[in-house]
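## tool: complex_structure
## caller: assistant
## args:
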Amino acid sequence: MMNNQGRVTRIAASDAAVETFTGNRALMLEEPLLFERGSLENCGVDLPDVPVVQDRLAGLGRARVIGLPALSEPETVRHYTRLSRQNYGIDLGIFPLGSCTMKHNPRLNEKMARLPGFADIHPLQPQATVQGALQLIDTLATWLKTLTGMPEVAMSPKAGAHGELCGMLAIRAALEARGDARSVVLVPESAHGTNPATAAFCGYAVENIPANARGRVDVDALLARLGPDVAAVMITNPNTCGLFEPDMIAICEAVHAAGGFVYCDGANFNAIVGRVRPGDLGIDAMHINLHKTFSTPHGGGGPGSGPVVFSAALAPFAPLPFIRKVKDGFELVEEMQARQSKDHDRSFGRMVAFHGQMGMFVRALAYMMSHGADGLRLVAEDAVLNANYILASLKDVFTAPFAHTGPCMHEALFSDDFLDGTGLTTLDFAKAMIDEGFHPMTMYFPLVVHGAMLVEPTETESKASLDQLVGALRSLAARMLEAPDAFRTSPHMAPRRRLDETAAARKPVLGYRDAA
Amino acid sequence: MRYLPLTQPDRDAMLRVIGAPDIDALFADVPEAARLAAPIAGLPMHSPEMQVERALAAMAGRNLTAGTVPFFVGGGAYKHHVPASVDHLIQRGEFLTSYTPYQPEIAQGTLQVLFEFQTQVARLLGMEVANASMYDGSTAMTEAVFMARRVTRRAKALVSAGVHPHYVAVLNTLTRFTDDEVVTAKPALASGKPGDDLDSLIAGIDGRTSCVVVQNPNVLGHIADLKPLADACHAAGALLIVVVTEVVSLGAVASPGEMGADIVVGEGQSIGNGLNFGGPYLGLFATREKFVRQMPGRLCGETVDADGKRGFVLTLSTREQHIRREKATSNICTNSGLCALAFSIHLTLLGELGLRKLAMLNHARAVQLAERLGRIPGVELVTTQFFNEFTLRLPVEARPVIRKLAERQVLGGISLGRLYPGVAALENGMIVAVTETATDADFDAFEDALDEVLA
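## result:
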């Protein structure tokens, strides 16, 4: 098998069989656990001597061994550097996880977030000493409100799901304020799992709305279900099939007419930033994942940041704390008792101990200022162009269930129909991509198509990168017909082969146990 | 634009492959009324890196940073020295730019770190199992109360007056629309044991109580023996939830697990993570093994691969939203992975010896400063048993004092008036935190400035 430079990509069988004493394979280095390597007698820091005082621990000192082994600094650097090399990251190659928007993380953002003026200030310092920080948050808030066309934004939510919670709490507070107890939240079946989980967290019963044959919300089913018991509809737009909901304006109008609110899951805002303002569609609340659209790094699972924009109807219920401009600067309003702003007189309360993810705010604002209004528009255009290029380049070998309805937005969705007759699953195909040096796409989500494969390239991939991915996927699609068995046991060349997840769950081992 | 690799010839070629006349054709599903023809008005256009850096540096320059002045602010976020190697290692692209480890074959780095992190956290808190992190301490505490409800099938939580008021506020917000009953009180500035209400908590436990939530050291710095409270909880079938906002204390103070806690939650910022004006921080969550299926959040577990090699995976995910949807134990998805990595690296450097020494250094320095400030005429040291944070009663309202100290370039602590606005009995209270970063010169400057402001 040749890649586009005519070089062989498949490892020779004889190479794979070579045994090594260490278990290492050249640059692929095995690394034991910290608890196997470190020692309770070691220490990787030097600290000043402890002054002799009469302690004030009242006999509550920690007597027993804690069990925390240490490594010296050189060993620590090596331990984590070796571990890092067992990870795939955007820095290594395309990370086409649909709905996750794994785009390039600019290093300017990292540098800015580490300026002591942002990184080394305490959330409870006197406000006069953090005016620049409040200015930064207020500036970011202005960008978010302007880009979404919404009048208010809550900055404190810690991640997308936390933002959903913020939005749904505001909706519940607004309904209760008008004495309107409603019990049901409608969620399309293509929604992220966080949507129904959040609605349930807020005490609502969740009902699913089916998708239609075009991969969009079944509007007739949605309209038929609206009524005096429906508090809100949670709808993702662009949706998780990678498609814009063309009836969004009509949906919002109908929900409002029935007395409910529209929560928009903004996970896919990257597809429309700068080209569409969600506020123009009529939504009431939307979270924005700064770690998706605005390039803050995902860090292997977090931290995220999920500011929530609000319509005028929900703005008075937005959470504490919030920032407002005062005569000679900015004020952080932290407490209900201290509130004086008419706009926030019915805040539903506080969501986190402090003011949100400052480190992520700095990164996001650096990214926005770099792109500007013009560049952000180009972000959406290139993201959509890249996804459509993938769709167009693969739809003859994969099954693209909604391609007949027209272009996609930022991600291309395929079903597993093209695997029929091979005995292979989406999982097998995804694992085979790993040997080709790619992180697989999102698998088995959304639930509306069988064996889903959701590919989101993002705008930070070059055409050459996309061509290589397309070439590899087409090659795999051809090879799976000749040699399906190799797929079933892939990956073969990753740091680990397939892991036994059933065994992990049946008898969970969730921490290291010292040998008895 | 420096972050966009496509050239105009690329775009043209790609449109031809797609069969679209222009880029607008790809947005055909957007209703006409919502299509923007030009860049959004009211925002600046793109900027070179140099100019962005200049603008942001100007904002950063308007803040008084902890490292440049005598600094004694705590209250749930602490300034500790973080070794340079920590920040270097978390910026390895393979850690920084990876995603949640959904493909374990190419995410063993992240997964092994999580396994080690879970082990470190469980041992530090004195518990059996810990998860792979939550957003922060306050949200972790709320999740713990909901978990106690699932375990006990009761809905009444007693919350100590010594719990950080912002944490209590978060719990109140999240229970506002549920039928959970949350019983709270404001702390008393009682000499010797401020905020200690263990006796009244014990008296308040009844057959409907799901859990008692207590913070140790409490928000006023006081440390207590929680064993009697744990016994009272268990006798009534309730769970004891212990909150730790300063995890360095666990190198000196008996762990919540040793005192009988059923769930321990914490703010892990103190180890490996900077102040960052409040975030991102690191929620810690640990419990007993028997409750593991009621836990929120991700869990990493050990397993083997097809060749029999040890490896790690995310496990027990049937608790989680992406599988269980509305029946999940929590809606949390993204957590604080990179902050957990920083925590784990710093704790690996410290180890048993380093953590214990760091903790005793914090404690000894706090004792020294507390005794000095307590000798200022009119100032009373209210907290007599503490770790690295204590409360003073000033002869005047503390909030203006803090401001005047800041005008003298001393960040001297937190006024109780800021944490408990409108509570007259607390307004003279001031919380002071002392870590290893404070020097003797900082002590002198603080004492002199406080003397001056109170004179």
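## assistant note: The mean pLDDT of chain A is 94. Chain A touches chain B through 212 residues (CB under 8 Å). Handing back to user.
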